[in-house]
Amino acid sequence: MIQTVARDPIERYREAERALWGRYGLEPVERFIDLHAPVVRLRVLEVGSGAPVLVVHGTAGPGSLPPLIGELDGFRCFILERPGWGLSTSIDFSKYEYKTVVVDVLGGVLDALELDRATVIAASIGNVWALRLAERQASRVDRIVLLGGAPLVPDVRMPPFIRLLTTPIGALVVRLPEKRRMTRMQLRQLGHGPSLDAGRIATEFIDWRGAMSRETGSMRNERAMIRTIAGPRGFHAGLVFEDDELAKIEQPTLYVYGTADPVGTVDVWRRVVDLLPKGELRLLDGFGHAPWLDDPGQVAAGIRRFLAT
After folding, report:
1. What is the pLDDT of residues 163-198, one digit of tens each?
2. Which value, in Å, is the radius of gyration of the alpha carbons in the chain?
3. Rounded CA gap, 306 and 163, in Å?
């Protein structure tokens, strides 16, 4: 009888990840960064050459980013796996002030990459990270690109899935392997139904989400983080920005928002962008929470134009 040897979970995760990046003809270079304050080992994937760009993902995960990265020719992109995601180790966010520790992490990453300054492209909760870095370490940030709604101001309501994660039921949800049907349902809730129906969202991404939930602790770690910044009643006051904090962020900032994104509203993001001294809002009609999933070429072209001006 031939006996088969079960592959390591990390090997299975890497296999799904390779298939996803390969879908876009990309082979990222992997590196690990060890920080001491906070103590954490972070994985960074490097793609391309040119001006440095630090990329900070949201709860869709780093696997949502390959279609966008594949369109950003002329940039050296460093895709950070936030603490607890993928092959990065986790930290206990409850031990830190959130708006301080995210700056410590991003500043430490830039130091380890030997980058004095970089553009930051962020999505969803990553938008909080990018703006906090710009607010507190302004000299490190050249320009900022924010993709999709985020808990930046008090009038942004918590998405239903994030609210679910704060509850005891959320503990069960993040321990169940994410089936394709669940991933598709979440994408529809986030405004990506038309792109799913049209086949614009790669099956490799949906397969990666399944491997991520089965083979890593990413979603359990994300839930633990979310429970330190939000509760059933909404996001904690210390997470969001006051108007005067936004008004101090001088870096040119592009906010890309799809009108089908359930996180925030057009009016909310117009107000936020008006508070930013050099803010610019780009609205994409019918696009969802991760707008590049609907049309990566169009989103990347807008980013390239913004970074070139």
Report:
1. 888 998 889 889 888 899 999 999 999 999 999 999
2. 18
3. 34
208, 33, 211, 213: which is closest to 112 by C-alpha? Answer: 33
Pairing mode, if any, of strands 51-56 and 75-80? parallel
Do the bridges between strand 51-56 and strand 118-123 make them parallel or antiparallel, or are there none, so unpaired? parallel
pLDDT at 1: 45
CATH number, domain 9-308: 3.40.50.1820
Q: Is 235 helix (H, G, I), strand (E, B) or coil?
A: strand
For the stretch 167-190, what's the b/e string if a residue is b when 16 or more beta carbons lie within 10 angstroms of its beta carbon? eeebeebbeeebeeebbbebbeeb
Pairing label, strands 234-235, 230-231: antiparallel
Any idea what DSSP says for residue 50?
S
291: DSSP letter: G
Give dist(CA 224, CA 226) in Å, integer. 6
Query: How many Å is the maximal CA-CA distance in the chain?
Result: 70
Cβ(55)–Cβ(79) below 8 Å: yes
Chain segment 268-304, per-residue pLDDT in tens: 999 999 999 999 999 999 999 999 999 999 999 999 9
127's tokens: 């938008």
Percent of the chain with pLDDT over 70: 98
Q: In terms of pTM, does the model score above 0.85?
A: yes
Paired strand residues for 256: 147, 282
